[in-house]
Design brief:
Layout: E1 4-7, E2 14-20, E3 23-28, H1 34-54, H2 62-72, H3 80-87, H4 97-107, H5 113-133, H6 157-166, H7 172-181, H8 185-189, E4 196-197, E5 202-205, E6 214-217, H9 220-227, H10 258-273, E7 277-280, E8 286-289, H11 294-309, H12 312-319, H13 328-332, H14 339-343
Antiparallel strand pairs: 1-2, 2-3, 4-5, 5-6, 7-8
Protein name: Site-specific integrase
Domain Tyr recombinase: 150-344
Organism: Shinella sumterensis
Length: 368
């Protein structure tokens, strides 16, 4: 018996009821408009027929796949809403490289390739891979826009001390915390005392970028800074006005503005510490520029951790990175620490020469 539109006594909306190829269905159309309900009934009946003949793969929509990913996936979801609004009920079988490229350009027309990768290609790949795991589509093989290799900027211990000493009183404990825990700006700025245990010397970040909570041991320098506060309830870090930092808009999952909450005070500290340079600004007035940002505190912590421990797996776990490949860049920034292994290479006869000046290799004194 094909689907028919019926009414329930206490519902204003039309209901679809019937049997399609042995499958009993009773679903609401979500509308009281009979003409609209009839269009929905026809579409739904076709989906059920296609599914019964060709399998689920033929009918699953992006909206269904995204919802299932949210309910059962373990990745971040903050960039999904614009994608769900764009693709909506488009069947997964109709979404390929071309459609995703067009979506990236439409949703982020002025954005860099790095931003398009982060906000479009990465979440799309995650959803499609999740759907492929359910056998709703083929495993995606997306080509991403090319972007320049990111340079890891980090501070030496001497530079970090200069920055800490130059911080305003309200900013100092926050900067120390970020440098010695590797916390992202949002994890630190909106940290609550309920997630800090000074006795156990541990902090827990319940909501992280990759969707999984993580805990990090507290360095003695952090404990010393935190113990200076008499408060043990509410926000750990406060503004210069002694109030918690403004929270992100709960209706905007993509709000990543934590760094902007402290950017002005942070840049001022960098200027006081001499961690930057001046360039001509408007009316030739000098303008201070620095490549040290709040996120550099995380890079600094990761670089120091690798220098001290040489343990990429532990660094990945403590820092909350999804893959080991994302952590490898901190090993690449530390090549100078491998100098002993290079110096240990055998010299041999190939290195014999007269009047060798080790301190000045260009002064070798070769004879013709």
């Amino acid at each position: 018996m094909p689907l028919k539109l019926v009414k329930r006594p206490k519902s204003p909306n039309w209901i679809m009821r019937g049997t399609v190829r042995g499958q009993s269905i009773e679903e609401t159309t979500g509308t009281s408009d009979k003409e609209a309900a009839e269009a929905i009934r026809i579409q739904r009946e076709k989906e059920l027929l296609d599914e019964s003949v060709y399998g689920k793969k033929a009918t699953v929509t992006f909206a269904e796949a995204a919802l299932d990913y949210i309910e059962h996936g373990d990745g971040e979801t903050r960039f999904l809403k614009p994608l769900a609004d764009h693709f909506g009920t488009m069947p997964l079988r109709n979404i390929g490289q071309h459609e995703i490229d067009l979506a990236a350009k439409k949703l982020l027309p002025k954005a860099s390739n790095a931003t398009r990768n982060r906000q479009v290609y990465t979440p799309m790949s995650a959803i499609l891979r999740h759907a492929a795991g359910n056998q709703w589509c083929a495993v995606p093989n997306l080509k991403r826009p090319k972007q320049p290799e990111g340079k890891v900027t980090w501070m030496s211990p001497k530079e970090a001390d200069k920055l800490i000493d130059a911080c305003a009183p309200h900013l100092r404990p926050l900067v120390v915390f970020m440098i010695y825990t590797g916390a992202r700006a949002g994890e630190a700025v909106w940290l609550d005392w309920s997630n800090v245990n000074l006795d156990m010397k541990q902090v827990t970040f319940p909501k992280t970028k990759n969707g999984k909570p993580r805990s990090v041991p507290l360095h003695p320098r952090v404990i010393m800074e935190l113990r200076r506060s008499n408060r043990r309830l509410g926000a750990v870090f406060l503004t210069h006005k002694c109030v918690p930092y403004e929270r992100p808009d709960p209706n905007k999952d993509a709000d990543t503005s934590a760094g902007s909450r402290i950017s002005s005070a942070f840049k001022t500290a960098c200027k006081r510490a001499g961690l930057g340079w001046t360039v001509p600004g408007k009316d030739d007035k000098p303008r201070f520029v620095t490549n040290i940002t709040p996120h550099v505190c995380r890079h600094t912590w990761a670089t120091w951790h690798y220098q001290a421990n040489r343990d990429l797996t532990k660094l990945q776990e403590l820092g909350g990175w999804k893959t080991l490949a994302m952590v490898m860049r901190y090993a690449h920034t530390n090549v100078e620490t491998h100098s002993d292994s290079i110096n240990a290479l055998p010299w041999g006869k190939s290195g014999e020469t007269e009047n060798m000046d080790v301190e000045n290799p260009t002064n070798i004194g070769l004879t013709a």
